[in-house]
Amino acid sequence: MATKAETGEWSPSSWRAKPAAQQPVYRSEAEVAGVIEQISKLPPLVTSWEIDALRAQLAEAARGERFLLQGGDCAESFDECTSNTITNQLKILLQMSLVLVHDGDKPVIRVGRVAGQFAKPRSEAFETRSGITLPSYRGDLINRTEFTAEAREPDPQLMLRGYERAALKLNFIRALVGRGFADPHHLEYWDLAFVTDSPMAEEYRRTARSIGESLRFMEGLLGVNPSELRWVDFFTSHEGIHLPYEQAQTRRVPRREGWYNLSTHFPWIGMRTADPGGAHVEYFRGIRNPIAVKVGPAVTPAALIELIRILHPDDEPGRLTLIHRFGSERIGDCLPPLIEAVQSTGKTVLWCCDPMHANTRVTADGYKTRNFEDVLGELDQAFDIHAEYGVCLGGVHIELTGDDVTECIGGARGLDEAGLKRAYRSSLDPRLNYEQSIEMAMFIARELRAFGRP
Ligand code: PEP
Ligand code: CO
Fold first, then answer.
1. Is residue 200 within 6 Å of ligand 1 at its C-beta?
2. pLDDT band at 2 (very low <50, low <70, confident <90, very high)
3. pTM of the predicted model, to two decimals?
4. Which residues lie closer than 8 Å to 219 by C-beta, 6 or more apart?
5. Which protein residue's CA is at the shortest distance from atom 9 of ligand 1?
């Protein structure tokens, strides 16, 4: 039975009555309210039509008819809002999806961790250096990285700057995707300049050539004008951690029921904020968007059943995605009881694997890294375990970049710990680089061929 607090009383700000983890303490709540008011009057970043279309596609993925490819940076920064970062990110996701569609024989839902992934959970609220204690850096949406009292003070105006950065990025992505760039007749647009000598390049090109041939064949056969085909949907997602920002763009829309979060298509609840009694779950239960929850080793079957009861009461197709992240050593123990818990509810969720976040470690030289073998190992086990329970793993959630970085070890080029320093650029979590991402797509395509049918 839903309690009173979980029925009728929801509003975009009802989360304020619940304990809210991971929130900064602002100096002036009046200023926060003023910023929320301003953002709520600005045009939305996404529309309810797009959100509903994504929910329908996620419903297909939950039935094993599509595959969700969700990826991007651990955190976006305001400074890296450049043409190159955006196009490289888009290119790698397009290339991966092309491999999945062609070699894995599944339509793909492309979702970026983009245009709003500006806030991060922190294990400590404060940081101490040389005897000075200041608030931790929580992402560009909240405060600044420099270790000074002024920079670390949470600044509500940064929410406005974040909203604007998200709009700038989305504007460029929409322009690229809507015309030309994402057209698979011109796969050369997706090439990344530095990859000609990559061990992955030749296999990828073979796939690309074969797609070009199939397209020409289809066009010849069906007489379709390629410019009339709309090829690529691209959706946005971010961790809905900073609740004032999420609240600001939560609106009603004409001729549709309920409230939509119009700052992103697909927000998710992070592992550290998934308490069923907490403010994040309260906020998420009231929005119409498809939503995801990160599920880590600490989640019990009882807690998961409670989350499903609150967040997925009507078993609406496509509504709830569970992104599990246990690590390659623990997935075998952690995942089966949670699959059984979901099955006991009789409801359908989309299962997605994040093989990155629980496979992180620090090298002797102090680099935060992930071993590509652990990443693929967790994914490999995820496909097997879901298949044993008669479900399809329906998606993957990864941190990647189209840039030529050296942050995760392993992969076809055999990057080792000593090689990390060549181009380690992440200030947060280590990302798969271009080659590792393509290699992962080829791996997933093979798994989809083996396990892709319900
Ligand atoms: C993340 O996705 O960057 C993240 C912090 O993940 P999690 O909540 O799973 O730790
Ligand atoms: Co991360």
1. no
2. very low
3. 0.93
4. 225, 226
5. 271
